[in-house]
Amino acid sequence: MLVAQLMLTLDTTIANVALPQIAGGLGFGHASLSWVLNAYTLAFGGLLLTGGPR
């Protein structure tokens, strides 16, 4: 569980670092970047839960 939380935090940090390049490349504003980060976090967390060991 701890490793899963670490991976989620690490990937969210990486996404935060990439936000300025996403904004420049796609022409997104601040509100759209918030949606991008939230969607990425939810998708990654959901896939992490379903892809875990049984």
Keywords:
54 residues; mainly alpha
Please characterize this protein's 3D structure.
By secondary structure, the chain is mostly helical. It is built from 2 helices and no strands. The chain has helices spanning 2-26, 30-50. α1 runs antiparallel to α2 (30-50). The longest helix has 25 residues, at 2-26. It starts with a helix and ends with a helix. The mean pLDDT is 86.
As a whole number of angstroms, the C-alpha radius of gyration is: 13 Å
Shape: elongated
Strand content: under 5%
Low-confidence stretches: none
**Spatial gap, N to C terminus:** 13 Å
- Report the structural category: mainly alpha
- Give a quick account of the main beta sheet: strands, pairing sense, barrel closure: none
Helix content: over 70%
| Total number of beta strands | 0
- Give the helix tally: 2
Mean pLDDT: 86
**H/E element sequence:** HH
